[in-house]
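Worked example 3 (structure in, sequence out).
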């Protein structure tokens, strides 16, 4: 907690670990387990506009972006795509080796092919070269704008785009690189990760940085204990807020449930489904969302159902492994 990052830094996570990172503009990301992120740009210009560019090497990143100005830039890149953000909550997933997926929960994300040959060039430099101009126009025409509950997919690696000689790149290589998916495939777990990303105010951020910096230096035993107590207090406050957001999200699942029209939709969202056998011999299939006292709350094809636990004879968990949907 409190570590500062700069352009060129890299963050890696291992199994069953994740990291939340907050930026100066109030945006934040959560780096999922088994992921690698490189910080290609973390800058603020003389006018106060921020430019944040994250390179997702592998794994998955959840982002909650707060662009204070339209001049602020926030993007997540993979070897084949640039996801430029317009103020939103979204996910970029490279956990599969053969593809990269961008999913939008709120707002809008513009996804375009990423070409090495255009990187680092000014508009004037591109304008002077006919090949580069054509490539830039092809990239612009291939861009797809994703809105709420939409997703796109593209190859995780495409050698035809990783070329520095503009004469060897054709419009055919660029067209169709980014494809919109019919089903965004956003799961409950993914949505909860986004909803539980919390940010802290400037004063708290500065405290975290100070504690981290002072702890890394030479301090006596009393000072070390004081810094540790401060750190634990701040960690506890953040954890409480995350737990509050998780409770709110669970309540939303019950009070404003998603319209899941089939058992397959339920499995795709909750990544599981249960078969509940009642004492009267009837049964119900759905995902158990919560249990409040003796009441079991289940998301079914017909919506939310509340069941008295005394009426339940048996629950078959992970029913998706025992039946086809």
């Amino acid at each position: 907690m409190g570590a500062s990052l700069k352009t060129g830094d890299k963050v890696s996570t291992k199994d069953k670990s994740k990291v939340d990172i907050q930026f100066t503009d109030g945006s934040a990301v959560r780096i999922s387990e088994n992921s690698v992120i490189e910080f290609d740009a973390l800058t603020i210009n003389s006018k106060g506009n921020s430019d944040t560019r994250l390179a997702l090497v592998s794994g998955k990143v959840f982002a909650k972006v707060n662009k204070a100005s339209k001049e602020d830039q926030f993007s997540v890149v993979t070897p084949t795509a640039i996801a430029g953000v317009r103020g939103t909550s979204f996910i970029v997933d490279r956990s599969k080796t053969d593809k990269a997926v961008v999913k939008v929960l709120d707002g809008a994300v513009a996804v375009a092919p990423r070409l090495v040959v255009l990187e680092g060039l000014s508009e004037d430099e591109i304008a002077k070269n006919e090949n580069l101009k054509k490539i830039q126009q092809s990239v612009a025409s291939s861009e797809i704008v994703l809105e709420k509950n939409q997703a796109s997919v593209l190859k995780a690696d495409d050698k035809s785009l990783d070329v520095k000689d503009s004469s060897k790149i054709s419009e055919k290589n660029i067209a169709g690189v980014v494809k919109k998916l019919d089903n965004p495939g956003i799961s409950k777990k993914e949505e909860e990760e986004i909803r539980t990303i919390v940010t802290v105010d400037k004063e708290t951020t500065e405290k975290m940085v100070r504690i981290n910096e002072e702890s890394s230096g030479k301090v006596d035993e009393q000072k070390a204990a004081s810094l540790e107590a401060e750190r634990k207090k701040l960690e506890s406050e953040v954890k409480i807020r995350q737990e509050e957001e998780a409770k709110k999200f669970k309540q939303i699942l019950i009070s404003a449930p998603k319209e899941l029209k089939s058992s397959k939709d339920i499995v795709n969202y909750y990544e599981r489904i249960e078969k509940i056998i009642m004492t009267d011999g009837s049964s119900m299939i759905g995902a158990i969302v919560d249990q409040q006292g003796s009441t079991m709350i289940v998301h079914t094809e017909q919506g939310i159902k509340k069941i008295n636990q005394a009426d339940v004879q048996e629950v078959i968990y992970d029913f998706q492994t025992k039946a086809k949907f």
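Notes: The chain has three domains: 10-186, 202-255, 263-321. Helices lie at 123-127, 130-142, 171-174, 188-195, 202-216, 221-255, 263-270.
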